[in-house]
UniProtKB/TrEMBL annotation:
Keywords: NAD, Oxidoreductase. Gene3D superfamilies: N-(1-d-carboxylethyl)-l-norvaline Dehydrogenase, domain 2, NAD(P)-binding Rossmann-like Domain. PANTHER family: 6-PHOSPHOGLUCONATE DEHYDROGENASE NADP-BINDING DOMAIN-CONTAINING PROTEIN-RELATED, OXIDOREDUCTASE GLYR1-RELATED. Belongs to the HIBADH-related family. NP60 subfamily. Residues 182-300 form the 3-hydroxyisobutyrate dehydrogenase-like NAD-binding domain. This is 6-phosphogluconate dehydrogenase. GO terms for molecular function: NAD binding; NADP binding; oxidoreductase activity. InterPro entries: 6-PGluconate_DH-like_C_sf (IPR008927), 6PGD_dom2 (IPR013328), 6PGDH_NADP-bd (IPR006115), HIBADH-like_NADP-bd (IPR029154), HIBADH-related (IPR015815), HIBADH-related_NP60_sf (IPR051265), NAD(P)-bd_dom_sf (IPR036291). Residues 9-163 form the 6-phosphogluconate dehydrogenase NADP-binding domain. It holds the Pfam family NAD_binding_2. The active site is at K184.
Length: 321
């Protein structure tokens, strides 16, 4: 096996998550005197800061594939993944994909993952499904949780670039790539359900006069770091980012993710009742004319209780009365 220090790595997709992960990866490559990361994005200017760190832009997906042994993908949805896989595996791809490893960190439906695996296998490439848990600030800190499924040798080749670089830990699920997407889908359902409960608890605290500060203290000390971090997204106003700022975790992607969970469950005769409640509130939040975070069901729940969608903190921050 090629030494990790000599492997050529590529990155496709520089949204908030992809940019954070690719940045940490390029810093690691520089520190270990390894070949620089090559990257491609639909809007190439998104990679300017990455280029400043030493990464090299690639004009096309095929060009990147020709200059990388391991290709990481971080894409917004199933159609974006399908498009990139077509570029990597279709007859128009100029790169020889034999022996290359394609690692998909995107959150997509298990059926989409299965199709990507089959198409890449047909051209001699190895596919690893590697969706991640954690919003963009967690990605920036290199503290994501990776869910890995794919050929053992391909997963082993990735390990030097995960824990301590982009990840705090990784869960291995064997070679069936659909299992990785299924676990990520299930996890997204749990996350959305917990956020729904935390948001409802805060509305309850405000309307009863108990107060958000007391509720947040309880969530931190009784229910742990995850519940507390969700609470902070509400009490700091992150659920409704300032105009012009990107959300920690995009509302539209959350709707897509929870929808995948409901669909996958329905296919096996299971109904995710809490997921249905969460996605209804998320869809109601989407009617606002500004980018919102996946925690923005809080604003909808506030309105249902007779409060304004925006807290006083947000109104003062944005100079809106």
């Amino acid at each position: 096996m090629t030494s990790p220090n000599r492997l050529r790595l590529g990155w496709i997709g520089l949204g908030s998550m992809g940019m954070a992960m690719a940045t940490n990866l390029q810093k690691h490559l520089s520190k270990t005197s390894s070949p620089s990361l090559v990257y491609h994005n639909r809007t190439m200017s998104r990679g300017d800061a990455l280029q400043d760190l030493g990464a090299n832009p690639s004009a096309s997906v095929a060009d990147l594939a020709s200059n990388a042994d391991i290709i990481f993908l971080s894409l917004s949805d199933d159609s974006a993944l399908d498009s990139v896989i077509s570029s990597l595996s279709g007859p128009g791809c100029a790169a020889d994909m034999s022996g290359k490893i394609v690692v998909d960190t995107s959150t997509v439906h298990p059926d989409t993952t299965a199709a990507a695996h089959q198409r890449l296998t047909n051209v001699g490439a190895k596919f690893v499904a590697a969706p991640v848990f954690g919003a963009s600030p967690v990605a920036a800190e290199g503290q994501l949780l990776f869910i890995l499924a794919g050929p053992d040798d391909a997963v082993q080749a990735l390990e030097p670039f995960l824990v301590g670089v982009m990840a705090r830990s990784a869960i291995r699920l064997g070679e069936d790539v659909t299992k990785s997407s299924l676990l990520k889908t299930a996890g997204n359902f749990v996350t959305a359900g917990m956020m729904e409960v935390v948001a409802e608890a805060h509305v309850f605290a405000e309307k009863t006069g108990l107060g958000n500060e007391a509720m947040e203290a309880l969530l931190e000390q009784q229910y742990g770091p995850l519940a507390y971090s969700m609470s902070r997204r509400l009490t700091t106003g992150a659920y409704m980012p300032p105009p012009g700022e990107r959300p920690w975790s995009d509302l539209n992607l959350a709707i897509k993710d929870v929808g995948h969970g409901i669909s996958a469950a329905s296919a096996t005769g299971v109904r995710l009742h809490v997921g249905e409640v969460a996605i209804r509130h998320l869809n109601e939040a989407r009617t606002r004319d500004r980018p919102l975070d996946s925690s923005s069901m809080y604003g909808v729940l506030r309105e249902e209780a007779g409060l304004d969608f925006a807290t006083n903190l947000i109104k003062n921050r944005d100079n809106v009365q």
